[in-house]
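dumping the sequnces here before i forget
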Amino acid sequence: MINRWRVSLIGLGLAVGVGLNVTLVPQIMTPRTPVFNGADIAENWEWRSMAIHSHSWWLWEKFPESTATHVGFVTPPGNPDALRVGMLYSQWMDRQGALSTEVDASLPPLDVSELGIRDALYPHHRVYSRIHCRSGQEMADRDTCYYFVSWSEELLGDDPPRFIGVLTNREQDKEEMALIEENLLRDVSPVPLEDLLSIDEIRPS
Amino acid sequence: MQPVVVEALVLALMGFSGVALGLLFGIRHWIVLAFFAVAASTLLRTWSAFTAWSLGRPEWALEAWLIISILAVAVAAATRYRAWSTAGLAVGLFGVGSVVAILTKYVLGVGERHHSDSASMLSMAIFAIQGEFDDTEVIADSYKRGISYPLMLALGPEGRILSAYTPLVYFALLVAAGWIAWKLLAGRVSWKVFAVVIGALTLFSLTVPMFRAAMSYLNGHTLMGFATVLLVGGLLIARQEQRFSAIPMAFTLVGGALGATARVEGIVLVLVVVIALVGQTWWSGATQRLQLFATLSVIGLTFTWWLSALESPVLERFGLPDWVLVLLTLVGASVAASKWIDPIRAWLLPAAAAILLVLLARVVWQSSNPVGTVLAQWPNLGLGVGGWGTAAHVFIGSAVLLGIRRRSAEYRWLLGLSALLIAAVLFSKTFDGGFGRASFYDSVNRMWLHVMPTILLTTLVGYSEALHAALGRRAATQSSPRQTAATNSPTAQ
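..and the predicted 3d for all of it:
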């Protein structure tokens, strides 16, 4: 008799467990639906690009001969006492020389957050993800920023594209950086790119 | 060549070589050979890559795997040809699993959850391993995620992973847990009772998000869980037979070597089960002791080989030269197999459990927030944040309702090992600090997958015994669970 009670309670527990798993659990923890399915995952550049540390891999997949500049995590030019700023774009794959893209991480991203051009850049984006970063001195600890890559097919020339790292939003908890193809950035920016300052840069007057 | 064809060919070679290795171990059961082949072929790939790296020729890794696999098939064909019908059935079952695994990817399009760890795994498999980088430093630096799993993924078509491998490991794990449970029940319940229990647990498991995710999650956790369940199965079957026969030895050797390379913290879980095996009191005779020595040596040397072949930073972190690890392994295996420790064997497992608990208590005591540390996994397991649904509640509730006194020795051992492995998971996390955080992606939350198959095995055995007793059926071939418990209990040894 005891055994029957025991088994009945276990059966009841399993039934309640199944019921809660079907009804309540999805409200607590809904697994993200896999964005990209199937066997092609390993060559799916969009899937790869969604993960931190894989941004340079993604760019290489899409534009094997491209160049990326202003993607460093370094002390701001002319501001030697400041915290390092920028994005952690490079990773071991670049160091190994396995990727044919050229990465110049000697300078931090250009600061376009005050130019009001973010809404003109964003509609061209192909990737939306996060990247390790520090968007300015107010961000004491290194954290992650939102991240996207934009280019316009009409503006791409015959030469391999050049992408420039920029800071598009430095508002707390909404920090955002991007890689913008040079021709698109020139087209949208109200000031010549050569006059843009990088994050927290101080130029000698 | 179509990617699906390449995957099918790789899986076919895995099936033949894995079954061949099982035959060479002396396994003669076709179901065992089929799921064992997944583990054995993974180990062949791991050892062949270590050989290439040790020789300073990473570009030979693929060829080394092809040669060693074909060699295994040839040797088995020459020496075990009488078992051709068993081998044929095993290869057939492996083939069915492979076809289903391929279908999940190429036809059903079952996708993977996006996770940065998975992306790191992909990049290591495709770029560093498949790309045959001369400089293996980057592979060495990624020691945390293990080496066996990315090595297998790198066997995929050029620029792609071996996508069917992950679901195949999951299927092998389920079949292994089912077969080991049936073996441990040893005719004490009818197959109908067992089938009802399997059906109920399958229905429940399908509703748990983490169980569903594990089938296609690109990380080494499921492989580690498979290795752990092989180890536990090897221990309990040896204990049931009171000897180290072919199946327990094969499970222990391959499960142990795989566990030591599937994840870096896997060595802690392997040690726990190995101590339980060495702690058995029935070791006798030169042959059995030699087998134990050889098995433990292979496990330890495989782990050392991994760190040594890649000049892993782990050696530097712990200040251990590789030759010291080799020496420790051989001396440890010799002592474990010797007669000298026979008088204290029964105390080894309780002592290890006590040390583990003291170490965990020390972590809590030294924490700035002891209560927070103890409750670190509560949101994941208790409140559903970790994707485990009601799995933890059902397991603990079942353990309480099933009790211990009326259960068989096998169930009691499984319950004890599950608890010890859970403690080992928490202990292994302390190298990174703390007991984890509330998140589906927390490493401890994912590391529960290492213990999940053992818990499944425990539950299968416990439920089957309870349902059998509730239906008032007599044991088919053996004494009642209670009698078995009395004769097999650790204190009766």
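The interface with chain B takes residues 3-4, 6-7, 9-11, 13-14, 16-18, 20-22, 24-26, 28-29, 31-43, 47-48, 50-54, 57, 92-93, 96, 98 of chain A (CB under 8 Å).
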